[in-house]
Amino acid sequence: MYWYNGDNFFKPDTVKPTCNFDSLFIKYVSAPKIKSNATNMYPNPATEKLFIENNLAQNSNYIITNLLGQEIDKGLLKSEIDISHLLNGVYVLKIFGINNQTQVFKFIKQ
Q1: pLDDT, tens digit, for every residue of 23-56?
Q2: Which residues, including other chains, have CB under 8 Å from residue 110's CB and lie 6 or more apart?
Q3: What torsion, rounded to 10 degrees, do the Cα atoms 43, 46, 95, 61 define?
Q4: Domains of the chain
Q5: What distance, in Å, lies between the first and last C-alpha atoms of the chain?
Q6: What is the model's pTM?
Q7: How far apart (Å, rounded) are the C-alpha atoms in residues 7 and 24?
């Protein structure tokens, strides 16, 4: 194991670590997340339309997949998504914002 101080890597027995491991984790390991209140989807379960309250950029895209990961629908996100053509079942809605931000919702189509 090596320590990283922002510029160089060091062996643990040669120097005391001066880096912030939390910032390294965020920068190199974790994926950016959207604040939990940034996007809301309702109703769930739904029959005809999903309504989206989206506080992200207007150019967000969405993909609807089934539970096998097969793409069922996709498009530019607006305030509502027509799901009337979907068969009854469970689906996953993925919303892609700017800077690789992603929000995922599971919903039931009745």
Answers
A1: 544 444 444 444 444 578 899 999 999 998 876 5
A2: 45, 46, 47, 88
A3: -120
A4: 1-30 (no CATH), 39-109 (2.60.40.1930)
A5: 52
A6: 0.63
A7: 12
